[in-house]
Amino acid sequence: MNTNDELFTSINEHLLGDEKPSIYLNKICKTPEFKVYPFNMLLALQDSKQSPKHHPEGNVWNHTMLVVDEAANRKYQSKDAEVFMWAALLHDIGKPPTTKVRKGRITSYNHDTFGAKLADEFLSSLDAPKDFIDSTCALVRFHMHVLYVINNLPFGNVQKLKQCTDVHELALLGLCDRLGRTGSSISEEEKNIQLFLSKIQE
């Protein structure tokens, strides 16, 4: 087993076993091994800024750590905890290459679709099983649809979403994503997820 495989296995164990995987992730991100491909794709999250209005917690890494910890507390609700936890870790991997300042606003348009491709590249480079990769990348690809559906935005493809992934798994990831922000309200975000489920199942 090479160093990358060992690190992947170690991250997997902490994602599935820790109450707060962020503690381990914040530790290993400082190691030389984490600067090597493909883990440097995750390290890039630390240099990716976000809108202070929507993400007062700061950069994408900070947000991802909050999301991963939320997911760790809810993974028992998932049909596949391993897929769910890796989707939580990789859901915004597409933000670094898509983040731009437009008219004074920090945006990351299409980071979901681009992120699905990067997540596939990341996991494929580690020889993860294809069904695991496909399921994880589908959640990454469609995670923004929670926002699209709730706000009646003319983006995305709900029909393809239903074909490619489980609506309830996506809703659970969406809840963790929305709670992974400083100052978020559990009751408000749970209502938003219920709204998403009711609208998408109409």
From TrEMBL:
InterPro entries: HD/PDEase_dom (IPR003607), HD_domain (IPR006674), HDIG_dom (IPR006675), tRNA_CCA-adding_enzyme (IPR050124). GO terms for molecular function: nucleotide binding. It comes from the Bacteria. The keyword Translocase does not apply. Pfam families: HD. Keywords: Nucleotide-binding. Residues 72-145 form the HD domain. The keyword Nucleotide-binding applies. This is HDIG domain-containing protein. It comes from Clostridium aminobutyricum.
